[in-house]
Structure formats: C-alpha cells, structure tokens
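Entry for coenzyme A complex. Fields follow.
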Amino acid sequence: MPDKPLDTTTPLNGRIDTDNLELAWAEAPWDSKLFGAPVLQIQTMALHGSEARTDIGPFVDALQRSGACLASCRLSHDRLNESFLLEDIGFRFIEMAYQPELALSAEAPHPATLEVHAATEADLPAILDIAGSAFGNERFHMDPRLSSKLGDIRYQNWVRSSLAHPSQRLHAISDGGRIVAFFITEEQADGTCYWHLTAVAPAAQGQGYGRRSWETMIAHARQRGSQRIQTCIVARNHRVLNLYARLGFHFPPPLTTFHWVRPR
Ligand SMILES: CC(C)(COP(=O)(O)OP(=O)(O)OC[C@H]1O[C@@H](n2cnc3c(N)ncnc32)[C@H](O)[C@@H]1OP(=O)(O)O)[C@@H](O)C(=O)NCCC(=O)NCCS
C-alpha cells in the first residue's frame, strides 16, 4: 500500500509518490488536439523498491479513465528497472535518443555561407512543405501503430505555432532567395540555444545544404551570444548523427523512449 496520499484528482495529470515509486504524468494538450483524444506524457519516473508493480496501479487506472489514446515516457538509458515496469503495463520501446551539445568558443570555425532570417507568414508555405515531408525517423512516424500522416501534421502545427510563440523562433535558411532549410530555436536563460526542429528540404538534401545550414546556424547562435547549442536526435537518424559528429558536437549518454497505445 502507498504510504503517502496519492494525488490523482484528474486522470490527465497526476503523481504517485510512495517508498517504491515516484511517477508524475501530465497531458500533452497539443498532441491531444492532433489525435482527437488525450495524450499523456510521463514526466518523471524512478523505482526505489520491489513493490512498484502494485504502486503503479493509479497510473494504469488513469490511462483507462482518461480515455488516453497514447502515452509516452523518456528515460535515461540505464533505467532498465523502470523500462521493465513500463513494458509490464503495456509500453513498448520506440527509440534511443541523443542530446548532442556544442560549446561555442570565441573562435569561429563554422562559416555562415547561407542567408538566415526570422521567418514570416510569407515564408510559411515553403517551410510547411518541408515540415510535412522531411521527417521520417521520429517516434510519430516510426511507431507502426500511429498514423505517419499525423506525424507530418504534428511538425507542420509546430512550425505554425512557433511564429507566435513567446520564446521559440522560426528561422528560414535560404540560398539565392530559395528556402532550403528551417530551424526552430529557443534561447534559454542559461546561455543555451536549443534547437527544437531542424530540416533540409527533401529536394535540396544530399548537396551539402545540411552541413552549410548547420554551420550557418552555429555562426548565428554564436553571433547572438549563446554559449552552447543543444538539441535532440534519434539514434536511427544516422545521417544527422554523422552531421553532428562532423561538426564537433559531443554526445552525452542516450535516452530511451517508450509508447503506450490504446489497443484497438
Ligand atoms: C539529415 C539532414 C539534415 C542532412 O542534410 P543534407 O543536406 O542531406 O546533408 P549534406 O549533403 O549537407 O551532408 C552533410 C553531412 O550529413 C551526413 N550525411 C548526409 N547524408 C548521409 C548519408 N546518406 N549517410 C550518412 N551520412 C550522411 C554526412 O556527415 C555529411 O557530411 P559528409 O558527406 O561531408 O561526411 C537532412 O537529411 C534532413 O533534413 N533530414 C530530415 C530531417 C531531419 O532528420 N532533421 C534532423 C533531426 S530533427
């Protein structure tokens, strides 16, 4: 039995805090809107004892009571006990993710050879085209139980909402007036420039625009005074993995992602 009271007032948000298990979850409203049913995210999970299987009951109950169609959890790669418990309650492994990081020193070894500007409404059609066709390795595209089309729409929605976002910025990268890539970035209080979403137009791939766009955006972050760049990529995206390695990014230990999908 849990020794501390459980806060499960609404099944969309909740917390379990017992001697065996700490678990907190919340709704991802943007994904609920996309899927037409609640989507939950486990925000923290830590096992401390062997009775966690019993203590996770309120979360399993919340999955049912909320009508959730999808739940996700991201763990440090070495949290195997937590991953076993997730698998016990129906979660499946989806991906391993890296969070490459680059410290921006005073020297500038990355040349800016493309133009970059803050995107406006006029740039949206070209950027939405890229966002709706460039991605294929991410969890919404790879989980065979989810519609890949919804994955495309999700990234297009993100591009649209970034235009009015209080801290995220949408950048268009172009060559001779043609948009070849876009980045959604966020400058954080600790000096990190976080790259949320990045892609080269499919028709422009394999011609050096990836390397040139990334170098241009590194130079842009340095020029704006950021001290480091951080991002998140999935391990199966070997093309971008090679690109980050080539540009001198460091790779901290990876994370693992799990999905629970309501059985049809
Ligand atoms: C990954 C991506 C950015 C590469 O862009 P690109 O324009 O095709 O890349 P470039 O031609 O400039 O090549 C740059 C580097 O990427 C790596 N790369 C590109 N294609 C590769 C391939 N088929 N296999 C292995 N590495 C590859 C290499 O390191 C290459 O440099 P090198 O050839 O000098 O070694 C592009 O494919 C893309 O936008 N993909 C979809 C969206 C995405 O994955 N975004 C990033 C994660 S959110």
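NOTE: The domain at 101-252 is CATH 3.40.630.30 (Aminopeptidase).
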